[in-house]
């Protein structure tokens, strides 16, 4: 089976932020930067309106939010979430819509706004459809349309149980206490950030070695004299390591930089790097 990856997917490595906001995981590697999607109230599961605040507390209903705006309530949050996610797999709502449940606060959140980074994951319940595609040329959009691959954001990923790879299916059968996974990584290497992927034998190194390995790159940027960040150090005489990884050969080109800041609902990019791209 031949798969052509869409041009919308670019390698994105996001570092953890100091603010307590879910902007993405440090292990993000394959991502999709989202533009805003229009989603009507009818496609949101038609949550009912509470007549009063007292009516909401009396029946202990779950609040429903769309892009952080309150739109109604629902009685059974589990069936409500299941119905919405089935609609997303059937493409009745855009696949980029993120659905998140917060049982602690009794809330259901739906996100269709801009500035969210999504990761493609294999859906457990639709893996059998891959056998039907054997011998045919398949694009990434075909996998997305058939529900084999699903976009999952940072908020929704907290509700999902994701395995490191598809080989964990066989480990479930051999285990005495099998874990029910909902999604699988496309490849185990996608779980690592850029800093980890340039370290040979990273699974045998201490975690503190990852920041130190950034110094082995030499000059990360073309404007080190005017930069104000202190996240890296420059080596005047960088040495070539004895062992290298495949990702090490990808450096030295003009790269597109995505800057993620603590300002909500925004993506800030560098116009200069876009012109060089």
TrEMBL record:
The EC number(s) this enzyme carries: 2.7.7.6
Keyword Amino-acid biosynthesis: no
Pfam families documented for this protein: RNA_pol_Rpb2_4 (PF04566), RNA_pol_Rpb2_5 (PF04567), RNA_pol_Rpb2_6 (PF00562)
GO biological process, one term: DNA-templated transcription
Top-level EC class as recorded in UniProt: transferase
Record InterPro entries: DNA-dir_RNA_pol_su2, DNA-dir_RNAP_su2_dom, RNA_pol_Rpb2_4, RNA_pol_Rpb2_5
Keywords of the record: DNA-directed RNA polymerase, Nucleotidyltransferase, Transcription, Transferase
Domain RNA polymerase Rpb2: from-to ranges: 64-123, 140-177
Domain DNA-directed RNA polymerase subunit 2 hybrid-binding positions: 196-255
Gene Ontology CC annotation, any one: DNA-directed RNA polymerase complex
Molecular function in Gene Ontology: DNA binding; DNA-directed RNA polymerase activity; ribonucleoside binding
SUPFAM superfamilies linked to this entry: beta and beta-prime subunits of DNA dependent RNA-polymerase
Family, per entry: Belongs to the RNA polymerase beta chain family.
Protein name as annotated: DNA-directed RNA polymerase
